[in-house]
Amino acid sequence: MSNMLRFVAHCRDESVVGMEVLNLHAPNTKVLLGKTPDEARRLAPILFGFSGRTHEEAVTAACRAAQGLPAPEGEAAVRVERAVAAEMAQGHLWRLLLDWPPLFGHAGPRHRFAQLHRRLALLRSTPEAYLVGGELLDLVANELLSGFFRAMREPSTLGEFVAMARRGGTIGMTLADVVELGAFIPDVSICAPLLPALSGAQWAEGLGGIPDVAFCAAPTWQGEACETGPLARHPASPLVGKVMAQGHRVAARLFARVVDLGDCASRLRHPLPLDLPPLVDAAPLGPQAGVARVAAANGVVLHAVRLEEGRIADYAVIRPAAWNYHPDGPFMREVIGRPAPDRAFTLLSLKALVLALDPAEAYEVEVRFADRDEEHGETSPAGAGDA
User: How far apart are CA 379 and CA 193, in angstroms?
Assistant: First the structure.
């Protein structure tokens, strides 16, 4: 059997009645045991694959906190912030330009993706970061959501929102298509709460120590499974909130990802703004222990470490997918009862929901109808830059 992440939907009476999430991978942190912090930092990009620089900075920050060392300051802090922002932007571009448009039959600007992805990978100076940040802002305004930027006012109805989206670029058209799939939030109380923006110190207090394997696989905050990612970072954005209030949470997540890309661009130009939390934050987690919170394209990444005589004695990682595909998390809460009138609509609806929550792994979606013999599924690639 394939080790690819699999989503198997069970349908009956034109609705989804059950969902299996198979092969949701967790990183093998045992290989870090006995390593020095420097050795662990060098291993991070290999061990964690996607978002290698993000995990490298998480390892470094957690180990520094465990050693009682202060966070980087000045130019060192700027370099860290820009590196993480660049990798976040790469992840957003992959999803926005390569994955979302083809889902609805649109051709994404692959050449723009390749150009920007390469430049983000090669950032070495402040002037270059400023220029690339400006290009990303132009991309958002002129190619992704130009219909909204050209309008004289914000849309007052969902119909106006769709019309403005369609007058824009590739993502605008895709966004309109997502809205027209229909809303499925019969009762907002079914939705998982959004993970709040927490500092490293707040995570240290909440975790109380190195989390065990079971918690890392199904994490909670104050006893609740929460959603992490762009929507959790931008619930106060007016248009994100407007779409979410209408029950279109998948569309709200897509819009929030574009907002997040704009934030990444701004951080490349002006790192460590006073009105936004840093992308990397860490705190002590007990004697010779530390925890780091790092922002990634698909949500919060947490690393916790305990050292003994300068080497790693215990290590834990909580990835964004562990929150979003938690047995009681946002995916499971929003998938059960979802309309399944026919195979094509059901596959499209489920793939949009999976992609909106972004597992950062190659995945396949399979639909099974209890009253039909045939089965069908489709495979999708992982995004680059997701954790």
Answer: 29
What is the DSSP secondary structure assignment for residue 72, as one 8-state letter?
P
| φ/ψ bin of 228: left (φ > 0), alpha (ψ from -120 to 50), beta (otherwise) | beta
In whole angstroms, give the CA distance from residue 359 to residue 340.
22
Q: What is the pTM of this model?
A: 0.93
Strand (E) or helix (H) holding 186: none
Q: Any idea what DSSP says for residue 234? A: -
Contact, 41 vs 53, CB < 8 A?
Answer: no
The whole-angstrom separation of Cα 33 and Cα 15 is 46
Note the pLDDT tens digit of each residue in 353-362.
999 999 988 8
Q: How far apart are CA 372 and CA 81, in angstroms?
A: 52
The amino acid occupying position 242 is K
Domains and CATH numbers, the chain: 5-380 (1.10.645.10)
pLDDT in tens, 42-86: 999 888 877 889 999 999 999 999 999 999 999 999 999 999 999
* Residue type present at position 25: H
Using alpha carbons only, what angle is made at residue 45 by residues 194 and 361, rounded to the nearest 5 degrees? 50
Give dist(CA 7, CA 24) in Å, integer: 10
- Asked if residue 130 lies in contact with residue 269, where contact means CB atoms within 8 angstroms, the answer is yes
Is the distance from CB of 313 to CB of 332 less than 8 angstroms? no
CA-closest candidate to residue 348, choices 120, 116, 190, 178: 178
Helix (H) or strand (E) holding 82: helix 74-93
Strands (E), the chain: 5-12, 15-22, 280-284, 289-296, 299-308, 311-318, 363-369, 375-380
Non-local CB neighbours of 227 within 8 Å, separated by 6+ positions? 191, 192, 193, 194, 195, 323, 324, 329, 330, 357
